[in-house]
């Protein structure tokens, strides 16, 4: 099979290789998937860039956690009726060194989730990390119908999914973005209000929109950097669910102001979510797909040979939307 891999961490063009590798064989409880699309996530790019080798026992890593394709074979213990299923994949890369940046990948059967009829494989490739993270951030504390939700980074992959899932669940959604192009993405996703944090005062706008009541839950892309705003707009009994804090990785937490709001802070890592939470997220995503609620923006489809370029797109500013590697042009 053709695949991309790296044998050391470093800059994309220096370490990524594309060539032929032996076809994998599905082990007990696994399925073999012929890939249609492999999604490039920021986490994939960060792991490849280093420092540190992500899998100590692996001499070679085929990157990427998310993707979509068709089940071609099944291992022992898996129903053969699954052969031919269109599926979306999550956690293909971790802890296995064989991710989705290959024509074939073997993955535990439960991580190859059937796609509902009418949902394209390109949509399926965009789920995984973003949609499962968004679901956990939104629903870990219970239903959100009628609640006020703030989604920071509303044009990002997690942010866009969070807006769509929250609107489907009956919430009022405010999204923050940086610029008009990203504002268009957030609005198209269904955000009721969009705030450009580069030219508007976020806390004041949020409180004005909510009539001073504030926010029930925050889906947070930059915990440390946005903590002053989050603390200012959070309702008593509200929750902040954060999945990143790149700008301020070791923030100082204003304990007493948050304590007096009975605030809940949650830190979400899709890889480390309990199995029960993953199952709940997968079920919730399936229902949203059936209803047409999840509509990820796709910025670009590139062939496998351009994987280094795809990684570089993630590392620098690019137009909003997901970047996919495409194995079978025209796949539905």
List the helices and strands and how they pair.
Blueprint lengths: L1 E4 L6 H4 L1 E4 L9 E11 L1 H8 L17 E8 L11 E4 L14 E5 L3 E3 L6 H5 L2 H12 L8 E4 L5 H12 L3 E6 L2 H10 L3 E4 L5 H8 L5 E6 L2 H11 E9 L12 H5 L4 E4 L7 H16 L7 E6 L3 H9 L6 E5 L6
Parallel strand pairs: 8-9, 8-11, 9-10, 11-12, 12-13, 14-15
Antiparallel strand pairs: 1-2, 3-4, 3-6, 3-15, 4-5, 5-7
Q: Can you give a write-up of this model?
A:
With 332 residues, the protein is α/β, with parallel strands linked by helices. The radius of gyration is 20 Å and the shape is globular.
Give me some keywords for this one.
single chain; 332 residues; alpha/beta; Quinone Oxidoreductase, Chain A, domain 1; Rossmann fold; seven-stranded mixed beta sheet; 11 helices; 15 strands; 30% helix; globular
H/E element sequence: EHEEHEEEEHHEHEHEHEHEHEHEHE
Secondary-structure-derived class:
alpha/beta
Number of helices: 11
- Strand segment count: 15
- What's the CATH C level of the largest domain? Alpha Beta
Number of domains: 2
Strand content: 25-35%
CATH architecture of the largest domain: Alpha-Beta Complex
């Amino acid at each position: 099979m053709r695949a991309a891999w790296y044998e050391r961490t470093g800059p994309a063009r220096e370490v990524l290789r594309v060539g032929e590798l032996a076809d994998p064989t599905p082990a007990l409880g696994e399925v073999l998937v012929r890939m249609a699309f492999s999604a490039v996530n920021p986490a994939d790019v960060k792991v490849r860039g280093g420092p540190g080798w992500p899998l100590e026992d692996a001499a070679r890593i085929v990157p990427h956690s998310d993707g979509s394709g068709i089940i071609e074979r099944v291992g022992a213990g898996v129903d053969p009726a699954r052969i031919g299923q269109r599926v979306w994949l999550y956690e293909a890369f971790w802890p296995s060194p064989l991710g989705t940046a290959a024509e074939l990948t073997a993955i535990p059967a439960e991580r190859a989730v059937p796609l509902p009829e009418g949902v394209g494989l390109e949509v399926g490739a965009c789920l995984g990390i973003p949609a499962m993270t968004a679901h956990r951030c939104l629903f870990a504390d219970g239903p959100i119908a009628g609640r006020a939700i703030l989604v920071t980074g509303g044009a990002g992959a997690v942010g866009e999914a969070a807006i769509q899932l929250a609107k489907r669940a009956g919430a009022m959604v405010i999204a923050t973005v940086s610029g008009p192009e990203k504002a268009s993405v957030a609005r198209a996703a269904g955000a009721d209000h969009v705030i450009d944090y580069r030219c508007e005062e976020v806390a004041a706008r949020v409180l004005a929109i909510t009539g001073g009541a504030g926010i029930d839950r925050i889906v947070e892309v930059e915990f440390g950097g946005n903590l002053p705003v989050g603390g200012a707009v959070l309702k008593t009994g509200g929750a902040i669910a954060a999945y990143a804090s790149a700008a301020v990785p070791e923030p100082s937490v204003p304990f007493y102001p948050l304590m007096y709001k009975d605030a809940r802070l949650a830190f979400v890592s899709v890889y480390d979510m309990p199995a029960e939470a993953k199952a709940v997220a997968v079920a919730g995503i399936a229902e949203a797909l059936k209803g047409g609620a999840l509509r990820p923006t796709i910025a670009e489809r590139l062939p496998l040979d351009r994987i280094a370029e795809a990684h570089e797109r993630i590392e620098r500013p690019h137009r909003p939307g997901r970047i996919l590697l495409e194995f079978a042009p025209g796949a539905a």
